[in-house]
Amino acid sequence: MSSISSFVNVDYSPQQKARCVLWYVETKSMIQTQLPYNYRANMIGKMNTTDPLCRICGNMAEEVASYNVASCQACAAFFRYAEVENEVLMCEGGYGTCDVTQLNCGYCRFQRCLSAGMTLGCWKWQENEFLPDPPTSDSSCYSQHYSIPENTISRNITSTHSSTHSLPNFANAEDELLEKFSDMKIEGHHLKFDTDIHMNEVVQLLNKPYKGDKRKSESILGSMISAFRSMIPEGRSKNIKFIRTIGWKDYMRFVMSHLKRIAKWAMACEEFANLPLEDKRQIFLGAWNHIYLIERVHRSVQFLGENFPANSTLFTDALAGNLLDTDLYEPEIQPEILERINTQFKPLYMYSWRNFEKPMRDLKLTEFEVVYICFYKLWYVKNIKGLSPETRRVADDILEKTSSELHQMYLEELRLRVYSIRLSKIFDTLTSLEDVLRKRQEALLMSHATGVMKTDLDESEFMSYFNDYCFSK
């Protein structure tokens, strides 16, 4: 795991509720600063607890709180080394849930340090704020309710490239998220709705003229980062709910609405907006699945951070859950059918987590990198049939320009003279994503054949590229 960026942590102890919530306030880059050992003395304060045990490993704690948390000398030294030296850590067990009392997994030990509230930065105290108890085994749909403080910030490096031109406003009235779903119904194991309505809306979005100003000196990726930040209409929800079950209809509504956001994001690129409509349509159909999954993993890290249990995934803008332990549910579906649906797709979720989501999280991608790989998937048109020669020329030119921008970001902002290994790992995750999508299509085909689950989306034009491409391999 690279420590190029790390994320906000909020004080939480599994043994007891925190007496306060700690917010990280970044005043200077901790990544490029080598702190002297005696800096630790400035980060020590009197303990405000009667608990004599280390909040990390459970051993006897020191008489003073190291880095703001009651901890033993060993855990304090470990945290300082991992934070300052950017030590690369990987989970020994692969799930981020190792027993740190045995001190056998550096990754899980470091995550426990962060979640307990350890920090080398400056801090301020918010009194009378408490985090909720951890999720229970209650299977009710909205059993837990996690609030993310509005002023919690991410310790994620973001690009200084900026765009000054106006962009499509994704938060305006025309972005109606749940429109035209009145016809959605379930018959047995089949979720039915009119996908043509949604395809027509996507085509209308792609057919609109470019709304931004003509670019002058701002970078291509700079403008796409601004559009990426505007993709969520309401921004980060203040009240994200941790769930154990999610409604099948609710989830499908979000998927269909979110792919329209992706279409709007793509139209923020002037070169894309100026392509022939049919070419834009084919490029979008080939890329939206990739962009959807990449964006969801990034938002999960960005919006949830350390506030939520390990393996938490943001399913919608306001609903999160453990990817490996969240079931689909609809009251009108027979329990035995629901059981078959959830059982059959669990191996796919596990494969996706191990081979794509966790590796991508471990890389701790900057926002610039996330937007770059989304943009790369949009413009990588080698396997898309029927595009005009001019469109392919534009795509090659765009990829060359954005690769140069990424190169400059690594050299000038992250100060990485050698980044080939990191870039190789990033593209490895994209290869794994292709495998995940292919296995998903195979699982859907099997579920259709066995009468387990089917949606009209699976055989719609939205999935035509993946049905053709995945099964041609």
UniProtKB/TrEMBL annotation:
Keywords from the named record: DNA-binding, Metal-binding, Nucleus, Receptor, Transcription, Transcription regulation, Zinc, Zinc-finger
NR LBD domain span: 216-466
InterPro entries: C.elegans_Orphan_NR, NHR-like_dom_sf, Nucl_hrmn_rcpt_lig-bd, Znf_hrmn_rcpt, Znf_NHR/GATA
Pfam family, one: zf-C4
PROSITE patterns for this protein: NR_LBD, NUCLEAR_REC_DBD_2
Coiled coil: none
Domain Nuclear receptor positions: 51-125
One GO molecular-function entry: sequence-specific DNA binding
Entry similarity comment: Belongs to the nuclear hormone receptor family.
Name this protein carries in UniProt: Nuclear receptor domain-containing protein
Source lineage: Eukaryota, Metazoa, Ecdysozoa, Nematoda, Chromadorea
